[in-house]
Design brief:
Blueprint (H helix, E strand, L loop, with lengths): L15 H14 L8 H20 L4 H15 L6 H13 L10 H5 L15 E4 L2 E8 L8 E7 L19 H10 L3 H4 L5 H11 L26 H13 L20 E5 L5 E5 L2 H14 L11 H10 L15 E3 L7 E10 L2 E7 L2 H20 L1 H10 L6 H4 L5 H17 L7 H18 L3 H25 L2 H14 L13 H20 L1 H23 L4 H22 L11 H11 L13
Parallel strand pairs: 3-4
Antiparallel strand pairs: 1-2, 2-3, 4-5, 6-7, 7-8
């Protein structure tokens, strides 16, 4: 017999062993537990380190690593079915002086395999040229365009990248590449190197990259990228073969195309907005093409300055491993430049692999765009465990899936609601110092207290109001004109568009419920007196047209914010026309609308209806 329907009961009360196994697999091994517990971060870091090494060696042991981690936890955790059980156990072990019992070591993972990673120098994480470090990204994805190693470069650093450096990035791949090049030779030549594997190993040991690859390139890139001479991998290998084997092999006999794609390094070139503009394995051609674009097109700008002055300023402002606010973050700084006009820099925050750092950016938009997620991360950690509880609630929304279905998938729903909550708690003006940071934390905590217990119920209530309105619209379709029905359907769709939690802030949700209630009242009156509804619509239509006109205009940032205010202002006017008993929080009239519009959009020619609107 059901006593209390839909009440959640901890599974550990029913089957403690099964609950422990499920918690270990889903929370700890899969990494879904959102926690900053030291053991969890340490174990996840070690596992990712091994997976990164596997990508370099082109192997995949993720399943084995998961199994090792599960066995490690299973041996040490008994009767632990939730984060609360885990925290209680950790507190008890800490009192006993054994709080590190869940810390894994590399040996705990590596017992599964005798394979060893080669010399770290053979698989570098970056390519160094002068003072610029170009990140290298390894992927083991058979058949993918990004399979292998990729050098990541930005427009402002292309002048520091030697055009032939790409062929020498990963010494750990040279032997295999030499093997395939030897295999590509004509049969009459190839027989001198049998067995090919031994010859490739011997040549790899003696092959040395040419000098000058790690400094700013001074040579011109040939229009024909097929001319692989001087600094190229094939040319140096050819000279080594002539010296070692006393065999002269023409350059055209070496077939670069016979090398598997994963042994041909890729390059990704990003612009000042961090957008990939070129990517591929034809590095010489892509570098030449991008340099030509930067030279010819005035629309392409480099946000940073490559001068010594800029690099010194950037180094001064760089701050790694930020854990708390013990620094300053002005919106803009001026950099003295004795050799020319002073430069402007824009300090900001960046986040990479959950590590927060301060950097100097070349433009304010890039600084703002990078700072927002890093700042959200810092503030969310400072707010405390209440936010973790909210996240747990948002991770299980199966009861609302049917209500949310018209607006997106369950995954999109969780993502949008989490984004909405973050913006509500943490969005605000720029933070320059510790005092503003502490004030923002206190503000977020106050918001957290007020929103606790309201966020999901408010979301559910809004969805129920939406579906109730849709039911009334179905009735209207059966008893009214097609035009009336289509106009109201479009209106409701504009109020709650697809994935609306990512677009409409939480503070506006109660107003949305009022607007939907007003729509239902209007529907009832429309069926009783369509002529009266048409008369009121004539007063509203000019403002609908003005919104449509402004939507097509090229608005600046301030005008976009004003447009959003005007949109909601027009909705309040709509309520006052069709459902005045719902009430509006502020006085609204055509005269107030016109005053607001003229004040905020003076540079846009808008048509206002004279006399009664």
């Amino acid at each position: 017999m059901t006593i209390v329907p839909r009440r959640s009961i901890p599974y550990a009360r029913i089957n403690r062993a099964e609950a422990t196994r499920h918690f270990i697999q889903e929370a700890l091994v899969s990494g879904r537990l959102r926690s900053r517990l030291p053991f969890f971060r340490n174990n996840r870091k070690l596992k990712q380190q091994l997976l990164d090494q596997d990508a370099k060696l082109r192997r995949n042991r993720e399943h084995d690593l998961d199994a090792a981690q599960e066995a490690f936890y299973t041996e040490r955790l008994h009767g632990i079915g939730s984060i609360h059980d885990l925290n209680r156990l950790l507190r008890n072990r800490k009192k006993e002086g054994a709080d590190g019992f869940l810390m894994m070591k590399l040996d705990d993972f590596l017992q599964l395999s005798d394979e060893e990673l080669g010399s770290i120098e053979d698989y570098p994480d970056h390519w160094q040229s002068d003072e610029v470090r170009f990140p290298l990204k390894y992927e083991f994805l058979l058949g993918s365009d990004s399979d292998g190693v990729t050098l990541q470069a930005r427009d402002e650093n292309l002048s520091f990248l030697h055009p032939y450096a790409l062929e020498w990035l990963v010494p750990g791949q040279w032997e295999e590449r030499i093997f395939h090049l030897l295999k590509s030779l004509p049969k009459t030549t190839r027989r001198h190197f049998v067995p090919l594997g031994d010859s490739a190993k011997s040549l790899r040991a003696d092959l040395k990259p040419p000098e000058g690859l790690d400094v700013s390139n001074s040579i011109q890139i040939s229009e024909s990228v097929k001319n692989r001479t001087g600094y190229s991998f094939i040319e140096n290998l050819r000279l080594l073969v002539r010296e070692t084997y006393r065999i002269h092999i023409p350059e055209e006999d070496w077939d670069w195309n016979r090398i598997p794609d994963y042994l041909k390094p890729r390059i990704e070139i990003r612009d000042s907005r961090n957008k990939i503009v070129h990517a591929g394995r034809e590095g010489l051609e892509l570098i030449r093409m991008r340099k030509a674009e930067l030279k010819q097109s005035p629309k392409i700008s480099i946000s940073r300055d490559d001068s010594v002055v800029w690099k010194k300023a950037a180094m001064k402002w760089n701050l790694d491993e930020i854990n708390g606010w013990n620094f300053e973050l002005p919106r803009e700084i001026e950099i003295e430049n004795p050799g020319g006009p002073n430069l402007k820099g824009f300090p900001g925050l960046s986040i990479n692999n959950e590590r927060i750092s301060r950097r100097l950016f070349g433009n304010s938009e890039e600084a703002s765009r990078s700072t927002a997620p890093a700042l959200y991360k810092m503030l969310s950690l400072a707010v405390g465990p209440d936010l973790a509880w909210m996240q747990k609630e948002l991770s299980d929304l199966h009861e609302l899936h049917a209500l949310y279905a018209p607006f997106g998938s369950p995954e999109a729903m969780k993502e949008d609601l989490w984004q909405n909550l973050f913006q509500h708690l943490f969005e605000g003006s720029w933070i320059s110092g510790s005092h503003e940071y502490e004030s923002r934390i206190q503000e977020a905590q106050r918001k957290m207290e007020s929103i606790s217990g309201q966020f999901l119920p408010g979301f559910k209530s809004l969805l129920e109001s939406y579906h109730l309105t849709q039911e009334e619209l179905v009735k209207l379709k059966e008893r009214s004109t097609q035009m009336d029905h289509n106009n109201l359907v479009e209106h409701v769709s504009n109020l709650l568009p697809s994935r609306f939690p990512a677009k409409i802030p939480f503070v506006q949700w109660n107003n949305l419920k009022r607007y939907l209630k007003a729509v239902r009242i209007r529907l009832d009156r429309l069926l009783q007196n369509p002529e009266k509804d048409l008369e009121k619509s004539m007063n509203l239509n000019p403002w609908i047209k003005i919104l449509s006109q402004l939507k097509e205009e090229n608005l600046n940032l301030q005008e976009k914010k004003a447009f959003e205010e005007l949109f909601w202002f027009v909705e309040e006017y709509r309520v006052s026309l069709f459902a005045p008993e719902v009430k509006t929080p502020v006085p609204v009239s055509p005269r107030r609308l016109e005053k607001f519009t003229r004040q905020h959009f003076p540079r846009h020619p808008l048509i206002f209806t004279a006399g009664p609107y």
